[in-house]
Amino acid sequence: MCLREAFDVSRPDSLGPVLIDAVQRSARGVGTPFWLYEAEPVRERVRRLRAFDTIRFAQKANSNVHILRVLRALNVVLDAVSLGEIERALRAGFTPGTEAHEVVFTADIIDEATLARVVELRIPVNCGSPDMLAQVGAAAPGHPVWIRINPGFGHGHNRKTNTGGPLSKHGIWHEGLAEALRLVDVHRLNLVGFHMHIGSGVDYAHLHRVCDSMLDVVRHWNRPIHAISAGGGLSVPYQSGEPEVDIEQYYAAWNATRLEVERIVGNKVRLELEPGRYLTANAGVLVAQVRAVKKVAENHFVLVDAGFSELARPVLYGSHHDICFLTPTGASVVGPVCPIAVAGPLCEAGDVFTQHDGGVVVFRALPLPKVGDLAVLRDAGAYGATMSSNYNSRPLVPELMLDDGKLTVIRKRQAIEQLLDLEVQRELT
Predict the structure, then answer these.
(1) Which of 152-156, 205-209, 270-274 is the least confident region?
(2) Secondary structure of residue 96 in the 3-state scheme
(3) Are 104 and 80 in contact (CB under 8 A)?
(4) 383's torsion region: left (phi>0), alpha (psi -120 to 50) or beta?
């Protein structure tokens, strides 16, 4: 059962009994705040994408090694965007350097340490700049590479998630492909395929435009590639009534593109998809405890012990997360509703979970909780824990997973001492 489906959609303040029990057990076991994920919704999302030849999880969405192991058991492979994510992939049991390409490194730059590691492990590099191609080629002639293309346009649910067009740093500008391919030839790099990921959200007219751009590139350059990637950015519902992406329509558009690519290049071509939040967003919640309730003019602020040091999406994008309250006994908080803003403990005016893009505070009509009640922020399984910080010297909070009724801690709470132990002083010679 998906965590979103565990909510009674006719009463957004109520939770299903399975989730309520897990929230209570977690709160007793590790204290608040904490992350709670459910494994089965992740598996269900993977099943929906099985038509694609390769499902490559963008682990930046949720890189806990136990989540990665759930995905590995489903034959999902990984995209890594840093040296740390490469090491996480190894810890989770993925094998790089094989024909299966279980790990691909995607970025716009590559530092020396990461370059040495991808060369050592024979990890294909999805290059987002000509300089990357030159650096990989100089270090390892013949190394497998992808070319990430910026086709000149983009799309996103927020300007900060648009990863294409002239204002985006991502990918190799379409007019620079000649130079990029020259570098491939000079260094005898093994060109695996072309990649286009130009933003989040799904607009089907935009989708077909991306597919057409991929075909334009393949027709013009006619390189003997073996794969194309549709990128990621598949949308998920964050509020009741928001549409789900039509996977059948999405696949049909890209499969038609793949078939035409095969006709052009004269060989079989693998179709990859790179979902991130689509697999994990609706499968996780952030749980915090109410620590203060105060009236400001005619509105109320409910202050909880989690902030944007835990969940940064609202302050970054104005993202919506449904919020409901539970009493310590697990009952839904009920009663007359009033205008409520839910905010955190950080010494920042922007530390508010109920805000629109641009920092406009939003007061939602919710029943008023009391100190000691629990606040459950829904659909927080992607870009939650991975974006957490130690701002205000706050330790990172625990992560738990519910799988077939079994509740386990999959990341323990960080200790303040661990933060301070890093701050040693030594003289450089």
Answers:
(1) 152-156
(2) coil
(3) yes
(4) left
pLDDT at 11: 43
pLDDT tens by residue, 94-140: 999 999 999 999 999 999 999 999 999 999 999 999 999 999 999 99
Q: Name the β-bridge partners of 35.
A: 286, 399
Show the tokens assigned to 77: 């492979």
Residues serving a catalytic function are 347
CB burial readout 16-29, b (16+ within 10 A) else e:
eeebbebbbebbee
374 pLDDT tier (thresholds 50, 70, 90): very high
Q: Which carries the bigger pLDDT value, residue 245 or residue 165?
A: 245
Strand locations in 135-283 (E):
144-150, 172-173, 190-195, 227-229, 270-273
- The upper half-sphere exposure of residue 10, i.e. CA atoms within 13 Å in the direction of its Cβ, equals 0
Q: Return the pLDDT at 241.
A: 83
The DSSP secondary structure of 334-377, one letter per residue, reads -S-EEEEEEE-SSSSTT-BSSEETTTEE--EEEE---TT-EEEE
What is residue 5's predicted lDDT score, i.e. its pLDDT?
A: 40
| CA distances from residue 326 to 77, 276, 283, 290, 422 in whole angstroms, order as listed | 37, 29, 19, 10, 38
DSSP assignment letter at 332: B
* CA–CA separation, 212 and 409 (whole Å): 46
Q: What is the pTM of this model?
A: 0.93
Name the token pair of 133: 């191609």
Phi and psi dihedrals of 188, rounded to 5? 55, 40
Picking from 128, 140, 120, 24, the residue whose alpha carbon sits closest to that of residue 79 is 128
Q: For 368-421, where are the alpha helices, taking DSSP H only?
A: 416-421
Nearest to 378 by CA among 125, 28, 38: 38
